[in-house]
Automatic annotation (TrEMBL):
A Pfam family assignment: TctA
Keyword set includes Transmembrane: yes
Claim: Secreted is one of the keywords in the record: no
Record's keyword terms, sorted: Membrane, Transmembrane, Transmembrane helix
Protein name per the record: DUF112 domain-containing protein
Residue stretches making up the DUF112 domain: 20-442
Sequence intervals crossing the membrane: 12-36, 42-69, 109-132, 138-158, 165-184, 204-224, 254-272, 318-339, 360-383, 395-422, 434-451, 471-491
Length: 510
């Protein structure tokens, strides 16, 4: 096979001492920047991009391979340990990952995430090598109506799954959509929900919302319970840095399911890795409920870490394929990498493999090498990262607050964003206090603009005909699956309420 021959030639160019050093440096730097709250993988690429310009093209792209995946590995580390994901693609991993950390299994959660990222990235990169021309056809099958249906599916499916109450889930979704609408309307130019503040014309940053809801909201929630529930802030840091055979067997199906969610989204410009990671998380939660897994949502489940992490990295791996084969950047990180190609006079797209084949295959080989190096680094350092939780609680949460503030200010240099961060943090505290899920808020903020834009485009194309929204087989299938998912979730919630009432009656009679 020609692809295999070209890949072996790429490995021959990448497997030199100097090139291995560059991919190691890139992986280490990418992980380090990705770990910092408020920065994340895209910021890692943006900050380290100028560093590669002084290198020769081969060394630069090899280093970039390490930075590309290293940033994503770092995203989940901060989320698991500090409840502050480095990027929106790591939000779904944070839910169960931080619960595992709080129950003393931080190293186990980090090892699960590292292995999931490795498996997802490895499978996706392999598919890029052998099947990129076929997979990129998925991108051409999606129009505005399909994108809107996809967003609605993600909205309602996640809202009905992640909460014990569908009403609370949909309420949280509504809060997220309101936050997503803040700013200047891109099509009409009118301002919405800005309260007359010029600082809100660009809307609320996803970084402000994510850090406020997850990090600052958690800090305030823990502080509010410090006297009533002292154990709420005692987070043991015990745990093994390696997965047992039982853990591996348990997590393997979740890794594969997560990868299956992530691969198609890597070639569809539908908002990056957020949709597949949330869908993978929701799937694992449903399966856990069916199995009677009580760890999910309480002390933390490794499947809830494994599936979203594999989904995120498989999306990133396929995004690289879409970038190289089509010149289509389907994520912010991939878009930044176009600058690296253009710096050396190369334009990603169908002709790239013909004009710069040696460079491209060396880059693809470096992605495999970078994944192996990152797995070794993160598995070895999982226990060391977990030691962060040995810091006294008052200092740790104070440090989280400071890092959150610094991360937000470093991105925008705006004091106003800090005030909004505090307001969102209080909102996150209130939602925790009254048991509203935060996941629907985040998914609505991320996908709200995508849904609005594609709904408007679809109605413009169809001249206001709503039938256009369900005119294709893809939209019909997605809406049908959505109805089934909602009906099933409503049935499960109703059955659970009846069981709870029955249990309460038995206790009263006793």
């Amino acid at each position: 096979m020609d692809q295999l021959t070209h890949l072996m030639q790429g490995f021959a160019g990448a497997l030199t001492l100097a090139n291995l050093l560059w991919v190691f440096v890139g992986a280490l730097l990418g992980t380090a920047v990705g770990v910092l709250p408020g920065l994340g993988s895209s910021m890692a690429v943006a900050l380290l991009l100028p560093v590669t310009f002084s290198l020769d093209p081969t060394a630069a792209f090899i280093m970039f391979a390490g930075i590309y995946f290293g940033g994503m590995f770092g995203d989940s580390t901060a989320g698991i340990l500090l409840n502050t994901p480095g990027a929106s693609s790591a939000i779904a991993t944070t839910f169960e990952g931080h619960r595992l950390a709080k129950s003393g299994q931080a190293a186990r959660a980090l090892a699960t995430a590292a292995m999931g990222a490795f498996i997802g990235g490895l499978i996706a990169t392999t598919l890029v090598v052998f099947f990129a021309p076929t997979l990129v056809k998925l991108a051409t099958a999606f129009g505005p109506a399909e994108y809107f249906a996809l967003a609605v599916f993600a909205f309602v499916a996640i809202s009905s799954v992640v909460s014990d109450s569908i009403i609370k889930g949909l309420t949280a979704l509504g809060i997220g959509l309101v936050l997503a609408l803040i700013g200047v309307d891109g099509q009409s130019g009118t301002t919405r929900y800005t309260l007359g503040l010029p600082e809100l014309f660009d809307g609320l940053s996803i970084i402000v919302i994510t850090v406020g809801l997850l990090a600052l909201g958690e800090v305030i929630h823990v502080a509010s319970r410090i006297h009533r529930d002292p154990n709420a802030v005692k987070i043991p840091a015990s745990g093994r840095a390696l997965l047992s055979r039982a853990d591996f067997r348990k997590a393997l199906p979740a890794w594969l399911r997560g990868t299956a969610f992530g691969v198609p989204f890597g070639v569809i410009p539908a908002g990056g890795a957020e949709i597949p990671t949330f869908l993978a998380y929701g799937t694992e939660k449903r399966l856990a409920a069916k199995r009677g897994d009580t760890d999910f949502g309480t002390t933390g489940s490794i499947n809830g870490v494994a599936a979203p992490e594999a989904a995120g990295n498989s999306t990133a791996g396929m995004a690289m394929g879409a970038l190289l084969a089509l010149g289509l950047p389907v994520s912010a990180t991939a878009a930044l990498m176009i600058a690296a190609f253009q710096q050396y006079g190369m334009q990603p797209g169908p002709l790239l493999f013909e004009r710069s084949g040696d460079m491209v295959w060396t880059l693809l080989a470096s992605l495999f090498i970078g994944l192996v190096i990152l797995l070794i680094i993160n598995m070895q350092f999982a226990g060391l990262w977990a030691k962060l939780l040995l810091v006294p609680r008052q200092y740790l949460y104070a440090g989280i607050t400071v890092l959150s503030m610094l991360g937000v200010y470093a991105v925008s240099s705006s004091v106003v964003d800090l005030w909004f961060l505090l307001a969102i943090g209080i909102l996150g505290f209130v939602m925790r206090r009254y048991h509203f899920p935060v996941a629907p808020v985040l998914i609505a903020v991320i996908l709200g603009p995508l849904a609005e834009t594609n709904l408007r485009n679809a109605l413009t194309i169809s001249e206001g005909d709503l039938g256009y929204l369900v005119a294709s087989p893809a939209t019909v299938i997605m809406y049908a699956l959505l109805l089934v998912a909602v009906a099933y979730a409503a049935f499960k919630h109703a059955a659970q309420r009846r069981a709870n009432r029955a249990s309460a009656k038995v206790l009263e009679d006793a």
